[in-house]
Structures are given as C-alpha cells and as structure tokens.
Amino acid sequence: AVLSKAKILVGEINDQQPAPKGSPTLQLDQLDLGIRCSRPLPTTAAPRLSEPPLDIARHVAQLINNGDCIQIGIGAIPDATLATLFDKNDLGFHSGMLADGIMALMEAGNANGAAKNIDKGQAVVGATLGSSELMAWAGQRNDLLFRPVSYTHDTDIVRQNDNFVSINSALQVDLFGQVNADMLNGRQISGTGGSVDLMRAAALSTGGRSILALYATAAEGSVSRIVPMLSANTAATALRSDIDYVVTEYGARRIRYLPLHARAEVLIELAA
Q1: Tens of pLDDT along 86-103?
Q2: At a CB cut-off of 8 Å and minimum separation 6, what does 259 contact?
Q3: Secondary structure class of 57 (helix, strand, coil)
Q4: How far is CA 201 from each of CA 70, 121, 194, 223, rounded to the nearest angstrom?
Q5: What secondary structure letter does DSSP report for 40?
Q6: For residues 125 and 101, what is the distance between their CA atoms, to the nearest angstrom?
Q7: Phi, psi for 58 (deg, rounded to 5)
Q8: Pairing between strand 33-37 and 187-188?
Q9: Quick one: DSSP state of residue 28?
Q10: Does residue 190 surpass a pLDDT of 80?
C-alpha cells in the first residue's frame, strides 16, 4: 500500500522466506537497494486456551453457520473461536491474518471455501502470524491467496461474499454501542486497524453479520470493559451505527437494531 509513495525502496531477500503461489511480486529493478540474508522468520506461539476465552468462543461459535465466510483477528479469543468451529462445514476465509487455527480447519476439511461467491475454494489472507509450521505450510498451499490490504479490506470486494462474518475485539464498548479498540487512558496504544472496514462489509453482505467479542472486564476483573460512555479523552474506533453482535463470557446479543435504552439494557446484561 505504501510502495508507490516511498522515496526509497529496500528489499530484503531472505532464502528462508516461503513464496506462496499467487503472492504479489516485486521486480528487482523496482528496488533501490536489495539485501540478501538467511534468517528464520518471526513466529508467535499459539496462546494456551483457557476457560475465559473458550467461554466467549463458544458463544461466538453459535453465531457461525455452515458455509459462512469468516474474517478473524488475532489473540486468545480469535484462537479459541477457531478451535470451536470443527463442527462447521464448508467455511471460507477472507481475512487480513492467517493463523494456526485456520490451518487446522483447512487441514481437517472444515474450511474449503466451497460456498464463497468470489475466490471460491480459496482462503484469502494478507499476512501470516503464527508458528514456523504455519509458515512452511502456507508456502506450499495452492488454496491460499495472499493479497494486499487494498483487496483484503476493500468493502466493495468483501461484501460480494454472502454470509460474511467479521469477528473482532475491542477495549471498551459504551452503552450507546460506540467501540474503542485502540486507546487506553487517553493514550493511543495501537492503530485502528481494519475492523471498521470489515464490520461495514459484513453489514453490506447478504446474510452477513459482525461480531465484537471481548472480555467483560480488564485488570483482573477490577475494570469493566462495558462502560456508561467513552471518556472525553477517548476517540471512538467504530460508530454506534457500525455495531452488530456483542459477545462476552456472559452471552451473545445483537444490538444493531435496538433503540438506545434497549441497547443499554442488553449491554448491561453482558457486563460483569
């Protein structure tokens, strides 16, 4: 996404980097500087699944149907969610991130992309984050399409898949349904990411839905993540018109079509 705007392009040519088929390529003459190296790729260990994220994941799994096309984020709750989907069939993926849990579902035959409207039979992903086994596996697959963010997060492209389900997390949700996913105590702790693009794609997809899955509390249960309102020094990542399903360990409820007072009542039910 930034290549056309950069003044200098440096390319690292790592002989330990798998080159999945169909990946975007860059010609050598486009580089100002090329550096050859041989070093292991950065990996992340799969989080150990425990009851709190699994409780949330089981609620999320109840909202997933056979043939759904899924986008999922990273972290303990997404990993737990993937681990609960082995009773679903013909799942598809169109997601910014490829994780070990997606590999497991594809290997088991639960995720084959057979019901997708576009890129049928293919899992569309933007980047790989997981184990060394995942990296090696991804480099050999013919049913993975690595695409730039201009494809993985383009609402007009994503919405073409019916029953598209976006699954993301947040730091806070207020009683209006406004979402904070990137600020803590008035300080920016991450980028906004692509969650809003994909929530809106889900809203436009035929049969689509978006799911916001989060722990009801933080700081070992001392702070509620469901708050009366976002504080004055906290910006909203997603608007109250973007939100659809909210899931905590206390259940799953759809709030998209609820008026303000009913939203507050439902969100209080999902709070600790």
Answers
A1: 999 999 999 999 999 999
A2: none
A3: helix
A4: 11, 20, 11, 32
A5: P
A6: 13
A7: -65, -35
A8: unpaired
A9: G
A10: yes
